[in-house]
Amino acid sequence: MSSEKHARWYFGGIASVGAACVTHPLDLLKVTLQTQQGDLSVLRLVPKIMQEQGALAFYNGLSASILRQMTYSTTRFGAYEVGKEFVNTDTFAGKIALAGLSGMIGGIFGTPADMINVRMQNDVKLAPELRRNYRSGVDGIVKVYQTEGFKKLFSGGSTATARGVFMTIGQIAFYDQIKSSLLATPYFQDNLVTHFTASLMAGAIATTLTQPMDVLKTRSMNAKPGEYKGLWDIVLHTAKLGPLGFFKGYVPAFVRLGPQTILTFMFLEQLRLNFGYEKH
Question: Where does each Solcar repeat begin and end (predicted)?
Fold first, then answer.
């Protein structure tokens, strides 16, 4: 029976990299919308980037995005898979606890690549003399380490880690729970329809849980030195835009995270069904 197969710890990382390659242009638009103070809509932003920089600009920072999935997602999915041996995930509370812990570990490991990812995507909007021009994700990390110090690699780390916790709860714990609830009914089998339905719902939940932190994290990583006094200062600055300021870019965030979540779990389930192992 296919449901007997279990995912190997690194499958989540591979699936996330595959999904990131497909959804990267959406991520770029999300970062651009969150960091601008003006009111350019997605419909006006796309032709503007196309006109000014060409189609390849939508893949700015792809290497950092892949590096981020290899650190952040491999860690959180891996920790969740391995943790199942030690934590009882038969209950929803068990799933949430394990997902939260896995997300925290993943958030810490993923922060440097995440910061470079935000910077590389945002380079598009800066004047040529202000651009950082990192050649790749690894080049960015080396340059930040050399010029700004080791600590700077973890700037925005607290929000990135908090976001990692909520993201992993929204994606992995809710996906697991929704999938097992669907499979408990007579209408669903362990197939693409079930994987799609569960991952779409998990994507919506994850976006809602993480959007306020995502806005704060993007602003913090992108800030000029001394622009904000600390995290609370960013919260107050964002609050001036009203409660919806914390959900700025929600639609593009869901438009990115929805497909990202769906593709990640579709890839992950195919890896599990085709290359997973059976417990004896």
Answer: 7-86, 94-181, 190-274
**Mapped to the 3 state alphabet, what secondary structure does 174-229 carry?**
HHHHHHHHHHCCCCCCCCHHHHHHHHHHHHHHHHHHHHHHHHHHHHHHHCCCCCCC
Q: How confident is the model at residue 119 (pLDDT cuts 50, 70, 90)?
A: confident
Structural domain includes residue 126 = yes
In the block, which residue shows the tokens 């990135």? 160
Total domains in the chain come to 1
Give tens-digit pLDDT for 189-237.
999 999 999 999 999 999 999 888 878 877 777 777 777 777 778 888 8
- Residue 39 pLDDT: 67
Q: Tokens standing for 68?
A: 């981020």
Q: What is the pTM of this model?
A: 0.81
CATH number of residue 43's parent domain: 1.50.40.10
Please state, as a whole number, how many other Cβ atoms lie within 10 Å of the Cβ of residue 275: 12
Mean pLDDT of the chain: 87
**35: containing domain:** 5-274
Residue 279 lies in a domain: no
The helix/strand/coil state of 138 is helix
